[in-house]
Amino acid sequence: MTYRMTFRGAAVPAEPGQSVGAALVAAGILDWRTTRGSGRPRGLFCGIGVCFDCLISVDGVPGQRACLVPAGDGMHLGDDARHETVGHGEDGGHAGDAGGPR
Question: From CA 42, how far away is CA 46, in angstroms rounded?
Fold first, then answer.
């Protein structure tokens, strides 16, 4: 059985056991939020819930880590308007990024 989720009005298929982040990447969607300071795109990075780059709104609840939320049939996914930067530099970048802490 394939699940059907929606993101920005488009259908996104997902398989049982797949995370929301994995389903988005499999559908060719590589970023779904931007950093607060410079507007750089962010999506799946570590894939294990540590980096917080993949925050997304799931069924209207913001701040969900796409890599940890199991995909479900009928989910509505949206941009995370809070632009969380937990554990990162001032622009949400990683230490190795051009916009990260120096």
Answer: 11
In which element (H, E) is residue 25 found? helix 20-26
- Residue 88, SS3 per DSSP: coil
Contact 3, 13 (CB under 8 A): yes
pLDDT mean over 63-81: 94
User: Among 32-36, 48-52, 83-87, which is the least confidently predicted range?
Assistant: 83-87
pTM of full prediction above 0.85:
no
3-state helix, strand, coil split of the chain in percent (to 5) is: 5, 25, 65
The amino acid occupying position 45 is: F
Task: Please tell me the predicted confidence (pLDDT) of residue 62.
Answer: 96
Closest alpha carbon to 42 in 50, 52, 51, 54: 54
Domain boundaries, the chain: 3-78
What's the CATH architecture for 3-78? Roll (3.10)
Q: Across residues 13-18, what is the average pLDDT?
A: 98
